[in-house]
Specification:
The protein is of the alpha/beta class and about 180 residues long. Helices cover about 40% and strands about 20% of the residues. The chain contains 5 helices and 7 strands.
């Protein structure tokens, strides 16, 4: 399946497509537009719209890999969306138990907040090892019926995860 670009928020025709989905995963880069910039506000609007679209199509579980940047942003926006849609659940799939210790203090606090609020937190290993991020990326896709992606360049872990989604044959929404 090729790239699917949506002209948010004008996506009414897409709301009835592929209903009955259960889970979506997020994949995106650690580097985001500068917080407070117009580009960052635009990205947040598109992610909110993608979460709403997915929820309208039946998604209740949102899987995040808990990485800095896009993953933490998406987790935060899912928790925000829960206020209006209490059926939504944040699921964290983390590569190893010490994941996040190298984050900035602010990102450490945000990850801790998301771990506390998540419906489930899964650790794929007790320690870091080469390939643990790819394993996490593959697990995110394995659990998903839909992938919400912020992909601006390749090669990257994000491009790899989108590749896993394409291999599985699930729809990818690019924000």
């Amino acid at each position: 399946m090729g790239k699917i670009w949506y002209d948010f928020p004008d996506m009414e025709e897409d709301r009835t497509k592929n209903t009955g989905l259960c889970a979506a995963c997020f994949t995106g880069h650690r580097e985001l537009p500068r917080a407070g910039s117009a580009a960052f506000a635009h990205l947040k609007r598109r992610v909110r719209a993608a979460i709403a679209l997915a929820a309208d199509r039946g998604v209740t579980r949102f899987y995040s890999g808990g990485a800095e940047g896009f993953d933490l942003l998406c987790g935060k926006l899912v928790l925000e969306a829960q206020r209006m849609r209490p059926q939504l659940q944040l699921m964290l799939v983390l590569p190893y138990t010490g994941h996040g210790e190298q984050f900035s203090k602010g990102d450490q606090r945000e990850l801790a907040r998301q771990k506390e609020a998540a419906e489930e937190v899964v650790y794929l290993s007790t320690h870091y090892f080469p390939g643990c991020m790819a394993l996490r990326n593959r697990q995110l896709v394995a659990d998903a019926d839909l992938c919400i992606a912020y992909l601006t360049h390749a090669p990257s872990g994000t491009a790899q995860t989108v590749g896993f989604a394409r291999e599985k044959g699930i729809e990818v929404l690019y924000v």
